[in-house]
């Protein structure tokens, strides 16, 4: 049993060693918001934005750094069992950091309206119209059981698709789709303002959608 474990660790060692080294070298930090906490009112309140950013996102960052430190130690000790045991925490907190870092950028106090350019043309091609895409993304996001994210994703074959992810699962590693626009439907994202009426929050968030940034993300994905 120990012999087979050593073989598996030897096969994994180049990957996990580089991951552990990266965790030891780098510390993730909470990104600054590109606007003030009250800038998205009345769609998202000042209080929600402060708690969401300073408390929830900061917790994902702190836990991600702590998990990577433990991972580096496990790699250094050739402890394969611990390396495997740390993967759920790495995925959850790493996903939380990735998802929220995208979320802040794709919202704007000057947002709303309709996409333009290549983004709009691709939306029309794959959904028929912008309104159809909004409706499909709204229904998918509202329909998530428990906590998660609704995403407009871009695939390697050049198509757009509405995809949902549970909890903090990051879209691209989980589904292969590049995240363009996402809606956080964890209760901490809306409950203080919208209570249990998730549909109102999801519909309102399109009023602050930063379609210019989403268009930039599409260009980068291509």
TrEMBL record:
Residues 27-108 form the Manganese/iron superoxide dismutase N-terminal domain. One of its GO terms (molecular function) is manganese ion binding. It catalyses: 2 superoxide + 2 H(+) = H2O2 + O2. Its EC number is 1.15.1.1. Transmembrane segments: none annotated. It holds the Pfam family Sod_Fe_C. It is an enzyme of class 1 (oxidoreductase). Coiled coil: none annotated. Residues 115-217 form the Manganese/iron superoxide dismutase C-terminal domain. InterPro entries: Fe/Mn_Superoxide_Dismutase (IPR050265), Mn/Fe_SOD (IPR001189), Mn/Fe_SOD_BS (IPR019833), Mn/Fe_SOD_C (IPR019832), Mn/Fe_SOD_N (IPR019831), Mn/Fe_SOD_N_sf (IPR036324), SOD_C_sf (IPR036314). Its cofactor is Mn(2+). Gene3D superfamilies: Fe,Mn superoxide dismutase (SOD) domain (1.10.287.990), Iron/manganese superoxide dismutase, C-terminal domain (3.55.40.20). GO terms for cellular component: mitochondrion. Homotetramer. Destroys radicals which are normally produced within the cells and which are toxic to biological systems. Belongs to the iron/manganese superoxide dismutase family. This is Superoxide dismutase. The lineage of its organism: Eukaryota, Metazoa, Spiralia, Lophotrochozoa, Mollusca.
